[in-house]
Amino acid sequence: MSRFDISLRTRIFLVVVLVIAAAQVFSAQRSVARFQAGYLKALEEQCLRLGAFLERDLEHVLRLGVPLPRLTRLEQTLGAMLAAAPELALIAVTDAAGNLLYAVEPAGAGRPRRGRPELPPIAAATVVQLRRHGFQPGALETRVALRVPGQARVAGHVHLRLSPELLLERFRTIWLDMLTIMLVSLLVTFEALTFFVADRVGRPLDRAMAAVNRSIYRQTPVTDNAVALTPALGRLASAFNGCMQRYLEALAPLEDLRRRAESAGRRLDGLAARLAQPVPATERSLPPSAADLQATAAALQRQAVDLAGRLAPSVLQALPADRRQQSRGVAQKQIPCGSIRPLIFLFVVADAFCISFFPLYVETLYAPIRGVSREVAIGLPISVFMAVFAVSMPLTGTWSERSGWCRPLLTGIVLNAAGLLLTAAAGSILQLVVFRAITALGFGMVFMACQRFVIDNTSVRERAVGMAAFLAAFFGGDICGTVMGGVLADRIGYRSIFLLSGAVSLSALALGALLFRREWSVPANPAARRVWPLRGALKVLQDREFCAVVWLQAIPAKIILIGVLFYFVPLYLRQAAAAQGDIGRVIICYGLVMVFLGPLFYRCCDRPAYRQYYIFTGGILTALALSVFLFFSGVPAALFLAAMLGVAHTFSVSSQAAFITETPVAKAMGEGVGMGLFRFWERVGNVAGPLVVGGLISRLGYESAIVALAGFSLAASLAYLGVIRGPWRLRLQSSRLK
Question: Residue 294, SS3?
Fold first, then answer.
């Protein structure tokens, strides 16, 4: 990727982001203001109805001649009404002079507070926060007058106060929802812009550069239609054609001299051939000057060839070897990586809808299983999903080696969509396990096909950036899907979410068929060997570097990621009475960090010589993130944990994949098969994650289980450091340098 590409993408993205963000901030302010006004008006109407109910009862008592100060058990009645109306913070009764007779609050004892001149005030800090939102404390008060029937005088008042804490919490929630929607829309905009730039800017630029290379080699003007797509390219092509025309005119006077030199060279070739023939016996008496004449002819021949070469166009000779090969018409069938990003995005959005609530959905289907604890049974569908996911990747790696990436990609989307639709109809955990296995098979096929797409359509030098773009689209879709699923789950139900997921996955299938319809007919590669990829599952573990990364870093990282983020966090936050939207927002913090820090890490900090130490750093940061439960608990601790896991995996996960491709065993088996086997062993952690964390929770409790995992991550990271610092490692590096 050139600097021009980066600058152009950055400028387009920043301009669009600023425009969309400004419009959304303006729209969000108006929407929140309307919501606040409407919500407060609805609560006031509810208070008026409740006040009218109290007014009728108390006026009936006053008609009987009982004065307000002598009412008995009124506090219990007011307390019951307050418990039934959580939006109220105070119900009070005052006399005609305004003296407080009775008052109940959620945190109070519900006893009469007589003799006080006024109602209990709102806390000063709460008043400040209300004014920041544009509300005065008096707007929360509702007062209903009490009159003795048949008399005009006022006997007292009923006071109802809305809960300011509830209002502030609702305002905070609506602002968080607005910010979340803004984030999702920006991510969608980014993916759309990436596809637009790749398809409408990057591809025409590549075609224009190829046309220029062909023109230089053939010494002809640029005639490709790609240069006419934009006025800027047209002007550049016109300027280039003018320079080429002047160059050819400058070479025209030398053309005759070049032809004459070539003719002289051919005559000298004939003379040298005749002189090289055996001399007849009758002519052997000739003077020895014939040998001198033969040497002179050979020298003149070399000079003629050199002169013809010097007079030939010199532009081609100045090109690098790889550029000359490209200019000779070598077909460049590479597809820009941005072309597949919208498909990845849609596909992952569909699969991520259920992330924030899937354990809760499994809980609704739970039935006791003999010998299996409740926590382990709930984690069983997740573990089966990860197991099938792990097995599907090496199989897809071998398939993609033979038939390319397109067929596994579209087939995987079909299977994934079918699994999602069937999941909505599951009636038991066993049925759910089968349907999630189908979903996982399709997900694994798509995951490996996309990685094969990056390998086939990038050079070795650009592969790291291509993988970063793939991961950015993957986690961008993961964020959007998690957020939207968490928001919609409370409104349309869990099963409806799975139906929606299947529909979105089918839309990804339609997009893939539209974008890559020509790739479906690509013939298979007969040179690829038909091997059973799982045969090499044990062979790769004979490589010490491969084994160290897999068992000491990759598997522990996946145990913690799946077991903690996607199993522990939803259950723990639900136990802490967190809203479904808040659970989704906590989980997406991991993806946010990966989306924004991952590409930045690749461009600024990625050094091949230090990749083992990046992996070690990620393990240490994971242990530090898990140890947060030694000091804090609740939603803040879970939020910190999710964000720090993203930081840790920014260092480790990308470095693991890049380092594995450089190991001798991966190079010997092929990139597709080697990466597939690495993903296979890595997914052992995905399978074990929910089971391990569920077992720890059942024995140690929620927070103690996470602290135990922190110790496990620290021990594994220190063991990995000992391996990469060992003497055998130093000897291996020395042998590679030699």
Answer: helix
DSSP 505-545: HHHHHHHHHHHSTTGGGPPP-TTS----GGGGTTGGGGSHH
The DSSP output letter for 110 is: -
Structural tokens at position 390: 């792990």
Helix 580-604 vs helix 463-492: crossing angle, to nearest 10: 170
Specify which residues 702 forms β-bridges with: none
Q: How far apart are CA 365 and CA 356, in angstroms?
A: 17
Give whole-number Cα distances, 334 to 217, 244, 376, 432, 652, in Å.
21, 28, 46, 40, 29
Quote the CA–CA distance of 81 and 319 in Å, as a whole number.
87
Residue showing tokens 């058990």? 73
List C-alpha distances in Å: 679 to 138, 397, 555, 560, 691.
62, 10, 10, 16, 19
C-alpha span between 587 and 118 (Å, rounded): 47
Q: What is the DSSP string of 675-731?
A: HHHHHHHHHHHHHHHHHHHHHHHHHH-HHHHHHHHHHHHHHHHHHHHHHHTSHHHHH
User: In this structure, what token pair is assigned to residue 719?
Assistant: 């063991």
Domains of the chain: 30-171 (3.30.450), 220-275+291-312 (no CATH), 333-737 (1.20.1250.20)
350 to 213, 471, 494, 564, 590: CA distances (angstroms): 43, 16, 14, 22, 18
pLDDT (mean) for 499-507? 92
| Residues β-bridged to residue 355 | none
Nearest to 571 by CA among 587, 594, 558, 593: 587
- The three-class DSSP label of residue 138 is helix
- CB proximity list for 467: less than 8 A, separation 6 or greater: 451, 454, 654, 657, 658
CA 697 to chain centre: 29
The tokens of 511 are what?
């997009």
For residue 297, give the amino acid letter.
A
User: What is 297-346 written as a DSSP string?
Assistant: HHHHHHHHHHHHHHHS-SHHHHS-HHHHHHHTT----PPPGGGTHHHHHH
Judge contact between 385 and 419, C-beta under 8 A: no
Sign of CA dihedral 464, 469, 470, 472: positive
Q: How far apart are CA 624 and CA 647, in angstroms?
A: 11
Beta bridge partners of residue 718, listed in sequence order: none
Neighbours of 226 (CB within 10 A): 18
Cα separation of 644 and 649, whole Å? 9
What count of other Cβ atoms lies within 10 Å of the Cβ of residue 708? 15
Give the span between the Cα atoms of 237 and 222, in whole angstroms. Answer: 7
Cβ within 8 Å of residue 459, ≥6 positions away: none
- The backbone torsions φ and ψ at residue 459, rounded to the nearest 5 degrees and listed phi first, read -80, 170
Distance CA 728, CA 545 (A): 11
Handedness of CA 457, 462, 467, 469 (dihedral sign): negative
CB-facing half-sphere around the CA of 533: CA atoms within 13 A? 28
Residue 321 pLDDT > 70: no
> Given the structure tokens 């990625």, which residue do they identify?
606
Structure tokens at 540: 């790769």
State whether residue 215 is helix, strand or coil: helix
Is the model more confident about 333 or about 663? 663
Residues 6+ apart with CB under 8 A from 97: none
d(CA 478, CA 110): 49
Torsion angle of C-alpha atoms 293, 298, 299, 305, degrees rounded to 10 = 150
Give the distance from CA 319 to its chain's centroid: 40
Q: Average pLDDT for residues 494-510, to the nearest whole number?
A: 91
Average pLDDT of every residue of the chain:
77
Tens digits of residue pLDDT in 240-285: 777 877 777 776 666 666 666 667 667 766 666 665 666 555 555 4
User: Is the pTM of the predicted complex or chain greater than 0.90?
Assistant: no
Query: How far is the C-alpha of 25 from the C-alpha of 339, rounded, in Å?
Result: 30
* Helix 611-626 / helix 634-660 crossing angle, nearest 10 deg: 160
